[in-house]
Write a structure and sequence with these properties.
mainly alpha, 0% strand, elongated
């Protein structure tokens, strides 16, 4: 396999894992909102986090293919809605549901950019592929942040004293 083919495959794998992570975050959010099944929501969040880590790993492998083209890469625009607040943190007052929703949105955007990078890679447009990969990795970082914040929210609000599913 050539390096370009591997990069395109890595982008495709990253996109799939981002899509799966988004689905699990949507599911976790749904459990929080409707069913109040906090244990299942936490489980879905954990699965989403695993997919996020896989996606980032594949994204990094794909990005490594463009190191020699770094000087040809386009500048990366800032990722929307993640501007730091005056306290220096990013959206600190979101609920667990809102963090799951934000994580899902960022995963969906990362998947879209990895898919685009894969297409550029197939078309031998390395600078554009590298650019899309950089944007995707930015969204991935934001998705992991929101996923971790959602899990912290769960631990703080529904930890040991809160509702949990019983295993029979």
């Amino acid at each position: 396999m050539t390096e370009k083919y591997k990069a395109a495959e890595h982008h495709a794998a990253a996109a799939i894992h981002h899509q799966q992570a988004a689905q699990h975050h949507h599911e976790a959010s749904r459990h929080f909102e409707i069913g109040k099944d906090y244990a299942h929501a936490a489980h879905q969040a954990l699965i989403a986090h695993g997919h996020a880590l896989h996606a980032m790993s594949y994204g990094n492998k794909a990005s490594n293919s463009y190191v020699k083209h770094a000087d040809a890469a386009l500048p990366v625009p800032p990722i929307p809605e993640e501007e730091p607040t005056t306290t220096g943190t990013i959206q600190p007052n979101l609920s667990g549901v809102e963090h799951h929703a934000a994580a899902a949105r960022h995963h969906e955007q990362a998947a879209r950019h990895h898919s685009q990078a894969s297409r550029h890679c197939d078309e031998k447009e390395d600078a554009l592929a590298a650019h899309e990969a950089q944007i995707a990795q930015g969204y991935a970082q934001h998705s992991v942040f929101h996923g971790e914040e959602a899990m912290k929210h769960h631990a703080e609000h529904y930890g040991k004293s809160g509702p949990s599913a019983e295993i029979v």
